Amino acid sequence: MPMVKLRAASAPLLIAALCVWSAAALAQADPLPSWNDGKSKHVILDFVRKVTQEGGRDFVPLDQRIAAFDNDGTLWAEQPVYFQLQFALDEIKRLAAQNPALKGKEPYRSVLARDLKGLSANGNKGLMQAMAVTHSGITTDEFAVLVRNWLASARHPTKRAYDEMVYQPQLELLAFLRANGFKTFIVSGGGVEFMRVFAEKAYGIPPEQVVGSSGSVKYRLSATGKPELYKEAKVEFIDDGPGKPVGINRFIGRRPILAFGNSDGDLQMLQYTTGGEGARLALIIHHTDAAREWAYDRKSQIGKLDKALDEAATKGWTIVDMKTDWKTIFPPGR
Amino acid sequence: MPMVKLRAASAPLLIAALCVWSAAALAQADPLPSWNDGKSKHVILDFVRKVTQEGGRDFVPLDQRIAAFDNDGTLWAEQPVYFQLQFALDEIKRLAAQNPALKGKEPYRSVLARDLKGLSANGNKGLMQAMAVTHSGITTDEFAVLVRNWLASARHPTKRAYDEMVYQPQLELLAFLRANGFKTFIVSGGGVEFMRVFAEKAYGIPPEQVVGSSGSVKYRLSATGKPELYKEAKVEFIDDGPGKPVGINRFIGRRPILAFGNSDGDLQMLQYTTGGEGARLALIIHHTDAAREWAYDRKSQIGKLDKALDEAATKGWTIVDMKTDWKTIFPPGR
To answer: B229 vs A208: CB contact, 8 Å cut-off?
Structure first.
């Protein structure tokens, strides 16, 4: 027993030693090699330096180093359609192939006819319907398997797997923050059960540090008496706009000192984060790179960035310009 | 910059080194000194040994070592009334003293007259009202200050501060689990914003690892433009009974491998925990010690333990008998 205890307890030691080693390696090299040497990079490095400087005016204790990242358009791409919506559309096709009787019914008919206009006819009703039929009526465990299978087989128009559409500079930033004692959270309008399937592998963020929108879930015993959680077709929480500070309060219970977003849906999270005492950092990715990624902002249907862009200018938040600030966009060698 | 990075990264190293040191110390001594040498203690030690034994049949990887603890009656006492309800009653008195116009109104009148029967007249309506008026109409930050002030000044009938009514054997168990790589969570029917005020200091459990019931919260800008979260008088989520597995899924996103409760409100959490694959441990505290604590179970208004006691017998869950299993109840020397 004593040996076992020692062995178990030395795992964190090993991890910490590796952190120190990698922090030392980073220090010698550059902790953010995919970030060009410009204002954004310096703002980040300065902020991390000052909040970790013991005895300094801006020092922040370890337990308060909370960083909140939006997901769609901030940690991974969101064009030409939100990836979770693409999952829903692909699921619709899979379900219709399995059960041809569905093919004449909505939302199946419009999806199969690639009739996105038909789907959007009544506002977003058709799209909501497509989301609902693919995100409910099954258990949480079954849903996770569907997402995992989809990620393994589906390909983005750029030919990459969807979980390879993550931003390399952000992976470096997440690792750099964690090496400096930050706890990194996702705070996204995306579905929490969708994101939790890949967040740990893609970003090193465990399920309990993923905050997102959710549908109602019901506890029940299966026909064979097995406890399970059943996903109902009812939206329970929208973690977007003013919902983001509410979600942060509900799940994290502490105000972040750093928040990173890319759209008006992040505005209130950025306000809330910077509204606290002491050193705070608010960052917004501006999608300006039509050649390597996409260029969109004030008039985009997806990831609209308008009010937050104005407020960033007024309040001195950091605008990360994708075209000039990022040396690379996606992870190399995949 | 390099030096700062190294210093920041060495904090986890220091903590890990202390963990190893304390784990080594525990190994030489006894990791659970307040637990009598009986079946319950051995079940716990055996379980932790087997899930941490690398290469063993029951080995559980670090990231899946999730432990869920109920709070009232499991981590701290819950008699003669739930402490959060006592907080509400004390707040009612404080508010009425500040604003005498309230004294003739319910729920103030009944609380001031110590008329608990009057308060409970329509089911629990009066008590719910007392909870509502003390848990809403203020910001989350203001509420945290009220709880902190109350904890600092209020005293339990036993003369202890309320946050000293924690169970010493459970503090040792939490520390032992964490030293073995477990992430410890509270999953309680209590209010999440109430518990988060003391959970870190009392149990070493940070706010983001506290799952509880919650009221609706609204994001807004104050008159001076300061972002704040305003507590509304509307129940949003009841983390009790079948709500516990739902809360676990919502906040943690992984099924625990160990759950510890003390009442029928924990039944579904225990079912859900033991319903997963691999090694699982379900424990229930049976309050059997009228001399040192309280003795109650099937017929108690508070912490009723009836169905879960029967199911524990059928399913072989571990019943911790407070009288015989615990050497001490509360922390010494306070």
So the answer is: no
